[in-house]
Design goal:
The structure holds two protein chains of two kinds. Chain A is built from seven helices and nine strands. Chain A is of the alpha+beta class. Chain A folds into three domains: 102 residues, Cytochrome Bc1 Complex, Chain D, domain 2; 71 residues, Cytochrome Bc1 Complex, Chain D, domain 2, CATH 1.10.760; 51 residues, SH3 type barrels (Roll), CATH 2.30.30. Chain A has a five-stranded antiparallel sheet, with no helix packed on it. In chain A, strand 5 and strand 6 form a beta hairpin. In chain A, helix 2 packs across helix 3. By secondary structure, chain B is an all-beta fold. Chain B has one domain: 8 Propeller (Methanol Dehydrogenase, Chain A). A five-stranded mixed sheet of chain B has the order 1-32-33-34-35, with no helix packed on it. Chain B starts with a helix and ends with a strand. Classes of the chains: A alpha+beta, B mainly beta.
Chain lengths: 249, 539
């Protein structure tokens, strides 16, 4: 695979603007504190708690560095987030570490042109046949309206050239065969002990009792084709730049 | 009030009788009540009520819901005494309800100290009762006594320092005139203990050190000063055998959880069961399931006490499905190992020796590069209760099947009240899951596994799509109740594992169901999400 000429885009690409200049020593100290204090619940990449993903700059309640520091010290009442016996300086160091996570990955850009990438997305790439952005496009594949917040550059590139490499559980497809032999394939929305829900190819929400199915199975391969060789390196870089620019409504 | 009126009230049963310890000991004589956390002090979670049967269970319908004013997990098992249900709204509000209607009589609200820091949610698993008094442990490590009639505080005893990471999360156990609790906080480098308090005054009467200090037997199993931060928490309720006058408690992981470099040795009494004299707290025997643990295999399960035929004679045994993936049978009079078989996939050990000690696999140690181990960090089972049915002779285990974790070791430095884990985890299944369940079977699943304790062999399995944090209740009519993370409440045939009935309760079941009866009508109650539900047969 051809490597992109990455350039550092600094923290402006994060979902929360950084407000302090942090030293490498702060980040390292914060990393130690994070592993000691935070990682049991939040996980090594900061993504164990639904709705929170430090590795992608995604916070649920905090709006700025000070409020993150306050939450670290005081906790959030009536939630699993406890108060912590850390000093303000230590809380700042943890924030420095949290801020460094997206900078290490997502905030790097392919160096492409987002406007040209939008044209690839809507034209040659045919991406809207399956994906949706800001209310336009199909609902079958993941809605990409805020994909620039959720995924790093390298992850986006991989998804385009090698879609089977990583299929997140929330993006899986399922095929069911009903007792009368009808096959239905769609995007899996939920599966439990007794039932299964999906969006079918007509974008209809479908409910199945497992007891009424002859069989069901997850589709192992991504329905998305690989664009390796179908886009030029420049088009690919442009497309990734466009995706990185999608930060939600 | 005249004696005649008193007599009338007593006959009419409109005044709740005091719950003597004799009543608790003989709780099976009054199965309409649920007088202690696990139903009886033997902790079988088996009710003698039989109104709900495999044939009519399909006619269960919801009678009432208590919607708690808390967004914390509802892990409490309620108790019921004479038509009054006592439960806990997380973290520490005790509530008295009419058990037939769910209407609230009173609420006692406890405000924990602000430096309370329970590791895994501001939760509580229930109360105990003796006489007219309720007892609750709090997340800031206090034990409080509350008047069961009006919800007023009677006494409040500090058990340990919340700022150091201590907490009380389990339901206390009443034995005679004592209230027994153990301390949680195993992720904070605490030094856990079990202690008994005078039910009348709250005064401490005895204390057992889960981590022995210099001069105490077992201290030699800790290198250097590592015993001072050795963990050994307690966070589920113990059991009691009145004939032996022994109380049994499961003890949690050593600290730091995932890095054993500085605590070389077996690390007694972590990951063990201890049998204590109920009057003095003196250790009678112990059995360690997972010596020198680095995988967080708390032995925080409820000791299930059964008298059963064992190789030609009736024997007092203890059944134990451990977080480490093995099912054990021990002689509870002396702790002798009788049987041990894995009930889920196990890779950290290659087997158990004749004394029940695990033979560790060569790879069974955490490393900086990560090591993949079955069962994973949440264990083959965990704190949620198993059940034993004397009718079927089967032991029912809420299980995590085909479940693993990759453990990474990192340095651990002790700072009071701060996390002292020494590792990071990459779970395959269990924690890092999508909000909705979209997993395949080979990624792990939850189940109730019915095991024959005489052989350790699985007789049947009820599979769930997702893993489960729900306890199991069995009844003398062979109905098994349980739930799971998917928001179902299930009734299953205890004889063969067939699904009999289900209800959607709209939230994860993270507690054990219990059953009781009011005016001849059997109810079964279960907490799910943030609410408590009570079902009974359609009238």
């Amino acid at each position: 695979m051809r490597a992109f000429p990455f350039v550092i885009f600094f923290l402006a690409a994060g979902t929360l603007p950084a407000q302090h200049g942090y030293t490498l020593a702060d980040i390292e100290a914060g990393g130690r504190l994070y592993r000691m204090t935070c990682s049991v619940c939040h996980g090594p990449d900061g993504d164990f708690i639904p709705g929170i993903d430090f590795g992608h700059g995604r916070f649920r309640r905090a709006t700025d560095d000070e409020s993150i520091e306050s939450i670290i010290i005081k906790g959030i009442p009536n939630t699993g987030m406890p108060s912590n016996d850390v000093t303000e300086q230590q809380a700042e160091q943890i924030v420095a570490y949290l801020r460094s996570l997206p900078a290490a990955g997502k905030a790097m850009t392919s160096g492409g042109n987002a406007a040209r990438g939008k044209a690839v997305f809507e034209g040659k790439g045919g991406c809207r046949n399956c994906h949706r952005v800001k209310g336009v496009g199909s609902r079958m594949a993941p809605d990409l309206t805020d994909i620039g917040v959720l995924r790093r550059v390298a992850e986006l590139e991989q998804s385009i050239v090698d879609p089977d490499a990583e299929i997140l559980p929330e993006n899986r497809f399922v095929k069911v065969v009903t007792k009368d032999g009808t096959e239905v394939t769609g995007r899996l929305l939920n599966i439990d002990t007794l039932t299964l829900q999906m969006m079918d190819s007509q974008e209809k929400l479908r409910f199945f009792e497992k007891a009424n199915l002859r069989e069901y199975s997850l589709v192992k391969k991504s329905p998305m084709p690989s664009f390796k060789g179908r886009l030029t390196a420049e088009e690919l870089a442009d497309l990734v730049s466009y995706l990185v620019s999608l930060k939600g409504i | 009030m005249t004696a005649r009126i008193w007599l009338f009230l007593a006959v009419a049963g409109s005044l709740p009788a005091q719950v003597s310890f004799d009543r608790i000991l003989n709780a099976n004589r009054e199965p309409q009540n649920w007088l202690t956390y696990s139903g009886t002090t033997l902790s079988q979670r088996h009710s003698l009520l039989t109104q709900i049967t495999p044939e009519n269970v399909k006619n269960l319908e919801l009678q009432w819901v208590l919607q708690s004013r808390s967004l914390e997990k509802y892990e409490a098992t309620s108790i019921v005494a004479d038509g009054i249900l006592y439960t806990v709204q997380a973290p520490n509000d005790v509530m008295a309800l009419d058990a037939a209607t769910g209407r609230v009589y009173w609420t006692y609200s406890y405000t924990p100290e602000k430096d309370a820091r329970p590791c895994c949610g501001r939760i509580n698993r229930g109360v105990a009762i003796l006489g007219d008094t309720l007892f609750m442990g709090t997340i800031d490590a206090h034990l409080v006594a509350i008047d069961a009639r009006n919800g007023k505080l009677i006494w409040n005893t500090q058990v340990a320092r919340a700022g150091s990471g201590y907490a009380l999360t389990h339901a206390p156990l009443v034995i005679k005139d004592k209230v027994i609790v153990g301390t949680a906080g195993g992720e904070f480098g605490i030094r856990g203990f079990i202690a008994a308090y005078d039910a009348k005054t709250g005064k401490e009467l005895w204390r057992f050190h889960n981590i022995p200090e210099p001069g105490e037997p077992g201290h030699e199993t800790w290198a250097g000063d590592s015993w001072k931060t050795g963990g050994g928490s307690v966070w589920v309720t113990g059991s009691y055998d009145p004939d032996l006058n022994l109380t049994y408690w499961g003890i949690g992981n050593p600290g730091p959880d995932w890095n054993g470099d500085n605590r070389k040795g077996d690390n007694l009494y972590t990951d063990s069961v201890v049998a204590l004299d109920a009057d003095t707290g003196k250790l009678k025997w112990h059995f360690q399931f997972s010596p020198h643990d680095e995988f967080d295999y708390d032995s925080v399960q409820i000791p299930v006490l059964v008298d059963m035929e064992w190789q030609g004679r009736t024997r007092k045994v203890m059944l134990w499905a451990n977080r480490n993936g093995y099912f054990y049978v021990l002689d509870r009079s002396d702790g002798r190992f009788l049987l041990g078989k894995p009930f889920v996939k196990v890779t950290w050990a290659t087997g158990l020796d004749e004394a029940g000690r695990p033979m560790k696999a060569p790879t069974a140690a955490t490393t900086a590069d990560g090591v993949l181990i079955y069962p994973g960090n949440q264990g083959g089972t965990n704190w949620y209760n198993s059940s034993y049915s004397p009718r079927t002779g089967l032991f029912y285990i809420p299980s995590w099947v085909e479940y693993n974790t990759v453990y990474f070791k990192i340095p651990a430095e002790y700072n009071e009240g701060r996390n002292f884990g020494g590792g990071v985890l990459r779970p395959n299944v269990g924690q890092r899951r999508p909000t909705m369940n979209r997993l395949e079977e080979n990624e792990g699943y939850g189940a109730v596994r019915a095991v024959d304790p005489k052989t350790g062999q699985m007789k049947w399995e009820f599979k769930m799509s997702d893993v489960t944090d729900a306890g199991v209740l069995t009844t003398a009519s062979d109905v098994l109740f349980t739930g799971g993370r998917e928001g179902y409440f299930f009734a299953i045939d205890a004889r063969n594992g067939q699904l009999l009935w289900k209800a959607t309760v709209g939230g994860q079941v993270q507690s054990g169901p219990m059953t009781y009866s009011v005016n001849g009508r059997q109810y079964v109650a279960v907490a799910a999400g943030n609410s408590l539900f009570s079902f009974a047969l359609r009238q």
